[in-house]
Amino acid sequence: MKYLRLVVIIGCLLIVGTAAPADGGGRVKLGYTFVDEEGNEAVNQRTFNSYEGLGLSLERFRYRFDNGTRLSADLKNITLNNRNMTFGLEKSGSYGIRGYNNQFRRTYDFDGGNFTRRHRTGGKLWFYPHRIFRVYGGGEYVNKSGRMEPLFDLAGVTGLQDVDYNQFRWHGGIRGSHRGAMFQAEYHHGEYNDEIDRNRDQSRYKIDLLALLPVPGYERLVLSGRFFHFETKYNSTDFKISTNQVRGGAMAKLLKNLNLNYHFIFDRTSSDSDFIATDNIAHAAYVSYIWPDTGSLTVGYQYGINDDLENEIQSNGIYFYGWLRPWRCWEFRAEHGFNSESVEDGGRLIGDEDRFRFKFTAKCRRLIFGTLSFKFENNNRENEQLGTEVDYIRYCLDASYMSDAYGYLSLGYAYSRGDYINVEDDFEFADHVVYGDISTREYRGFDAGFGAVYYRSKRDLDVESFTLRFRGGYGFMDDYRLDINYNVDNFDDFLVRDKYYTSNIVEISLTKILSF
Amino acid sequence: MLKKLHLSACVGLLCLLLPPAVVLSVEYYDRGTLIETTETCLDCHEDMAASLDGSAHRLTRSEDGGAVAVGCVGCHDGWEVHLEDPSTETIADLELYSLMDQAAVCGSCHQNPHQSALYSTDPHNRTDVRCLSCHRIHDNHNRALVKDDEDNYCTACHTTVAAQFKRRSTHPLESGNVRCIDCHRLGYVGDNLYAVGVDWTCQECHTDLAGPYVYEHKPVYEHLTAGGGCNECHEPHGAAADRLLTQPGNGVCMQCHGVPPMHRVAHSGLGSQLACVDCHTQIHGSNDNPLYLDPDLGAKLFPDCYQSGCHDNYR
Prior knowledge:
Largest sheet of chain B: 2 strands, antiparallel
Number of helices of chain A: 1
Distance between the termini of chain B: 36 Å
Oligomer: heterodimer
Largest interface: A-B, 167 and 117 residues
Largest sheet of chain A: 26 strands, antiparallel, barrel
Strand content of chain B: under 5%
Shape of chain B: elongated
Number of helices of chain B: 17
Radius of gyration of chain B: 29 Å
Distance between the termini of chain A: 31 Å
Structural class of chain A: mainly beta
């Protein structure tokens, strides 16, 4: 009954909207989703938030009034539990209001009876009391409730855990900007309420000041600075922890194509329960040279100190980055960063630590035909004292093709491999992801599409899952469409007997295309 | 410590005093000039007004009451010459501008944390990602004038990240319940090497796990400005193991800890036959004991052990 009323109200609004003499468009969609599931409903994440029932959506709706005020809305599945809605009303240079609401379910047991659901509802607004000042604020309410299973319960004794908490956050601020200079002051406040254990109720607040200042008379020297104070407090005990952080930097254009970038952080985090505080100091400087439209090279250095008064860790990092466009459509990028942390005073469990990362990208961008890209990434972390190491490699090949005559095609393959040398029980995995999507252009009102994702996880894991998406549509009477979407999802963990899942989800929808 | 602090501050201040070399070139116009010149532009480019009408850059008319005015010459430099010589070469085309020049033009109005971060500390700055790489000004009705209004728009370039969201365990990006900018707030991101506040980003949604705790598990609340924190055990984009964990089972614990010898020998090695978090359930931090043990462990798992008094020291 509640949904029926909603459908009628939105229908009336749309009729009024189409009659008004203004500019806009959008889609109203009414559809029914059929869900047929078999197996363990706690294993396939893509279908956690799928529901059977009648769905009403208002998608990509926009409406411009004659005075320049714009109304926009994207309200998906208003009548179902997987609703995801945003809306906005704004006028450029004057004011704006935006809001959103969505919810997500995560299931934990075989038949889906135990689940948690997270709701997010929030909004923000702003206005300009003067052309150089913007006043803004917003709030968000988050609630998570339900019943969850612990991840590892080999003994089967930990049992289900009830979850029921909510958090309300709000913020307000003012920003002034004038001729390249900007100052912003914000206050954030949050209240966390745990309905299961009131002793965990907390209050948080943050004061955040930010400034940007071009040196008068010189556009290419810009100073930036930020201060924030962040505090969390348990309401029942007044136990609190706080952080004060100062950040700053300068960006200077020394020569026509030579830039210098420097920034620093001074940060102290402390608790009132003892006399220990953790200090972080960091400096980073980069020099970049740009050959316009051809390439650039950046070299950087970072120095950091982490000191909790008992232990001191110093770090040194170097950074290289470059891109090159030797021909019009081809672009190459490479990045290398290395960071070495050493314990200078005291000690810590993981001892000294070295990290490096390397990335390489080659991309061909032909605007007429689409794009082709290849990426390689390698991340590594090593702790000699523990004898542990993590080595992580990724490749990704991605291609797309677009044609006005035929339609759209995209294909991709991603491989990731992780080798974890632990203190005990090493672990390794190799993940393969193949994905693709093809859509035809409309022909005599008909169009069709097919998409697929195949995932395979091997070595110490043995998991296979895939998703197939078939879709077909028919446009009629100028502004109506009938669409059918058929999704197949499958999941198998071959190492655990009860971790399998198959679903067939069909959505049939009728869409009215709005244009006024 | 104090000496290092002073040294760091001095280095910082010295760098701030580096001599600048290039002179200011951005023009700022008052409201009247913007409206007046726009009328002149529209004499020839009438269709351009329509291309901006539904967007935040709707050209300001004299009767509009908005505090901020938008006009053609606010972005398109060289209009004085263009009036005399109306060829395409004489009027500024922002698409052809360099990163810094685009940032300067857009920044003449859009002075905000997003713009300032991209102008200075954001890694996009070094990768030659310009304002118009992501935004299109004319003929665009998308939010914030991004070229593509899809929620996972960033993945058009970050393809390896997009593939991570197709793994076994992920944040719900593909269902639209979270968006890239929920965590990667463009106005607040620090440098690539400074994963500043990564834990504070996580705790905005996962407040129940955020602490502070009387007994903090060090990697969870490392108080670092670089790395560490939640990402030590979880891969936020997508992981091969459940719950976004980098390794399944006891693997994440074994990154730093071995199985204690007594777990192997006492009571026929019972302690090593269980998952670590069967007993150490408060692994994100505890207000009860320094080993992050379940406060109700005695009652539900090993009542005899605690009632005998043998293990009181571990609680």
